[in-house]
Design goal:
Layout (H helix, E strand, L loop, with lengths): L2 H8 L7 H35 L3 H4 L1 H20 L5 H20 L4 H28 L6 H29 L2 H22 L12 H5 L4 H21 L2 H8 L7 H23 L3 H22 L3 H16 L1 H12 L4 H29 L4 H19 L6
Helix pairs in contact: 2-4, 2-6, 2-7, 2-8, 4-6, 4-16, 5-6, 5-8, 6-7, 6-16, 7-8, 7-12, 10-15, 10-16, 10-17, 12-14, 12-15, 13-14, 13-15, 13-17
């Protein structure tokens, strides 16, 4: 850590300057923007497909491409940038996101749109890899949990507000307007970060060796596998939630945004419930929510053919998946208390890879089997995840 940053923090160990908290909130705005940017296509999938003359399965590549790129960027970008000031890197990544979303808004073809989504993937993976470390460096150690919660609260806010809001904009105006508005939000984030973030020189270069060493920990190995199974299973189905709700459950297109908002609220509830339950028995909690997710996805296919059952099961779906990120992350961190950054980077890379491959396989299944078949695929992977947790030995907190 630089002498300037250390002095600023150490000089006021009991009281953090308000500007520091505003800077942490600026990082939260960044996480809000990148998560919204990553998942916005879920809500406008059918509209984009219709406008650019591609199937729902092909349109799902808008989620696959940035997920694949982000999965590679998350562990590699911290290595590539060496000792470069993290403030400069974050500003560059958000600027790249702005350019990508504006390019998406004016894309004349689906190929150009996919190229823009490639750039989004770089911004997503790089920002997530650096954001947590930057947030906690701006406050004394005793305030690190609060700073982390604020910084990553932007991701939760994106699921509850950003993605449904983008979907509603796409429904009321046009999907191009939704991407344009997101680009404008990114510009605002650039200005706020520029004004509030202090200089953040690297504490020490990040090396690849530590990442590889994490695979020697059986719980970290299992946690990464469980992340892949649950997240890919979820996104295989959730990428196509808009056409599923319309064609299978009979929900009007104008109500999809409201339904996704309800999904996000249920996800917040699931997040807090999992956090409370996981403090007592994280393995049992993970088995429970994995099994619940499998059951809900199967029930959507079996009995979700009406608007009432479709929305009710969507809420249960949100609650089940909402607890998965915090549940798996807690399990991994308890098993690797001395390598939290490396273990987290590994899990983040797998999370994004799972988003990409889930959307890819979901698109293949939707186009070549049936739209509701993606639900069965997700249910099968979630069941495998529950079995993987059950077969992994318990570890001490």
């Amino acid at each position: 850590m630089s002498h300037a940053v250390s002095a600023a923090v150490d000089s006021a160990p009991e009281r953090v300057p308000l500007r520091r908290w505003f800077a942490v909130a600026a990082v939260a705005m960044g996480t809000f923007a990148v998560v919204t940017s990553e998942q916005l296509p879920v809500g406008v999938l059918s509209s984009v497909g219709d406008a650019l003359h591609v199937s729902d399965g092909v349109a799902g590549l808008m989620v696959t491409v940035p997920g694949l790129v982000a999965s590679a960027t998350a562990p590699l970008l911290p290595v590539a940038i060496g000792r470069l000031d993290r403030r400069i890197v974050l500003l560059g990544l958000i600027t790249l996101m702005v350019v990508a979303n504006l390019l998406s808004a004016f894309a004349p073809s689906f190929a150009i749109l996919l190229a823009a989504r490639f750039l989004v993937g770089i911004a997503i993976g790089g920002f997530w890899a650096l954001a947590a470390g930057i947030a906690v460096r701006m406050v004394p150690e005793k305030y690190v949990p609060q700073a982390t919660a604020i910084a990553f609260g932007g991701a939760t806010a994106a699921n509850v507000l950003g993605i449904p809001a983008g979907t509603l904009i796409g429904e009321l105006a046009d999907w191009r307007v939704a991407f344009g508005v997101l680009g404008g939000l990114g510009l605002l984030v650039v200005v706020v970060l520029l004004l509030l973030l202090p200089n953040m020189p690297a504490t020490e270069p990040v090396r690849l060796r530590t990442l590889g060493e994490q695979f020697g920990n059986p719980v970290v190995r299992a946690g990464v596998l469980v992340t892949f199974l649950l997240v890919s299973g979820h996104f295989a189905a959730f990428t196509f939630v808009s056409p599923i709700l319309q064609s299978h459950s009979g929900i009007d297109k104008q109500m999809i945004g409201a339904a996704l908002l309800a999904f996000g609220v249920a996800g917040i509830i699931g997040n807090f419930v999992t956090g409370a339950a996981g403090s007592r028995d994280i393995r049992a909690t993970l088995i429970t929510i994995s099994t619940l997710l499998a059951m809900v996805l199967a029930l959507v296919a079996l009995v979700g053919g009406t608007p009432i059952t479709g929305v009710a099961l969507l809420l249960a779906w949100g609650a089940a998946f909402g607890g998965i990120p915090v549940g798996v992350q807690t399990w991994i961190l308890r098993a690797a208390p001395d390598s939290t950054e490396a273990a987290t980077a590994l899990n983040t890379a797998m999370f994004n890879l799972a988003i990409a491959l889930g959307a890819l396989f979901g698109g293949l299944i939707a186009d070549n089997v049936a739209l509701t078949a993606v639900l069965w695929f997700g249910a099968a992977l979630s069941t495998l995840a529950a079995l993987a947790v059950w077969r992994t030995p318990a570890t001490r907190p």
